Amino acid sequence: MNAKMKTILQFKIRKTYEEVADYIKEQIMNGVYKPGDRLPSFREFSELLGVGQSTIREAISSLKTMGLVTIRHGEGTFVTRFNPEDVLSGFEMIHPVTEQDVMSLLEARKIIETGIVQLASERRSDEDLKRIEEALNEMEDTVAKGDLGDKADLKFHYEIARACHNPVLEFMMQSISETMGKTLKASREKMFQTKGYPEQLLAEHKDIFKAIANKNSKKAEEAMLYHLLGVEKELLD
């Protein structure tokens, strides 16, 4: 039995695959299992958590649907690198977002993302900047088509977190992606009803990108905070 498994020997869980999946997902989000790591076998998880292997199999299958793990026949189950669109689509019909969820998320984002964007401005590589710009271009394309662009928006913010080159911050952004994804969609559905607002949101994201491109951490923080305060105001009105 590997060292990671020893930390959860006393774990108690109801025998449902949803809760097993939530537990394994939490371990991934917390960095216990990192991208590329091989997860314990079905038998090992079954013995460890006190559930049947069929329950483990269902849990792993749901994590695969979310894009969190990859099953390699003959080798095992491995943690995959986070893909914002896969996770968003995997969670799309799960857990309705309440008003309290939205308020908690907005509060967390103001604290976390203003710090993240400062670090990204200082540490980003040319490749990081290219990925952020690609997400921004996707947003611009969706605005031109009259679409919401919520997935591109999620990708934009996540790529900024990746540009910090801090795995803890990356996992923090990953861990709030479920609620963040649906909140972005909900906020855009409301804000896009106001004429000119899609273009305003796009302009705010361009200001954030410009500051990161110029490695101006102060401007990047100001642009991110301005953007998040605007979203908060629009949602609360």
Automatic annotation (TrEMBL):
It comes from the Bacteria. GO terms for molecular function: DNA binding; DNA-binding transcription factor activity. Residues 14-82 form the HTH gntR-type domain. Keywords: DNA-binding, Transcription, Transcription regulation. Gene3D superfamilies: GntR ligand-binding domain-like (1.20.120.530), Winged helix-like DNA-binding domain superfamily/Winged helix DNA-binding domain (1.10.10.10). Pfam families: FCD (PF07729), GntR (PF00392). InterPro entries: GntR_C, TF_FadR/GntR_C, Tscrpt_reg_HTH_GntR, WH-like_DNA-bd_sf, WH_DNA-bd_sf. PANTHER family: TRANSCRIPTIONAL REGULATOR, GNTR FAMILY (PTHR43537), UXU OPERON TRANSCRIPTIONAL REGULATOR (PTHR43537:SF5). This is FadR family transcriptional regulator. It comes from Thermoactinomyces daqus. The lineage of its organism: Bacteria, Bacillati, Bacillota, Bacilli, Bacillales.
